[in-house]
Amino acid sequence: MESATTAQQLRERVGKRVAALRAHRGWSQELLGEHADLSQVYLSKVENARVACSVDTLAALARALDVCPSELLKESTA
After folding, report:
1. Which ranges of the chain does DSSP label H, i.e. alpha helix?
2. C-alpha 61: how far from its chain's center?
3. Is the terminal CB of the chain with fewer CB neighbours within 10 Å at N or C?
């Protein structure tokens, strides 16, 4: 039986996906923050898995990155 994904693993996955999608667009954390109405400091914490995002934050990030929220939970292929 496979073990369940831990909360920390999900935070790391979301952080990696946000960073990858942001970099793909050539955006700084500051620019993504402006689009998602979040601070650069908070985005750094998200990308480094130091905070647990709320559903509202995930939705704001997905909207800013023009992806479905589920895209932020996918494992990074890089």
Report:
1. 7-24, 29-36, 40-47, 55-65
2. 7
3. N
